[in-house]
Write a structure and sequence with these properties.
- It comes from Georgenia yuyongxinii.
- The protein is mainly alpha-helical.
- It has one domain.
- 74% of the residues lie in helices and 0% in strands.
- Helix 1 runs antiparallel to helix 2.
- The radius of gyration is 34 Å and the shape is elongated.
- It starts with 23 loop residues before the first helix and ends in a 5-residue tail after the last helix.
Amino acid sequence: MSTQYEPPQPVVGSPGTQPTDASVGELFGEISKDLSTLIRQEIALAKAETAQSAKHAGKGAGMLGGAAWSTHFVLLFLSLALWWALGALLGTGDTPALGWAALIVAIIWAVIALILASMGRKQLRKTEGLPQTADTVKKIPDALKGQERS
């Protein structure tokens, strides 16, 4: 069974056709209508993609929040265990030195907090913001005028 291939017939007004009866004004009108439709479709696509991405990001952020909350309790109970063990080691006989042990655990956590704060501050100072976006946005008015800024 052999079938004959028939190429699709071009639609008047589509790229690659040459409408003979259309005026320049009609052509510009059709181009602006097509451009407007294209922009609306792109915006709709961007909205749909953004909504889907936000939904996935929200679920992920919620799970990370739960993990952080759980980690907080793990650290709390490990700290309590360390506090009790240090108290037993520092104490004499049957009397644990829980006060000194609590102070030692608190100092350990203070040192960890200072190190993390220092590292976080260092990272924030390295943040540049959005240099490429800012540069591109500055070029838009000149591009619309037909000029190019370097």
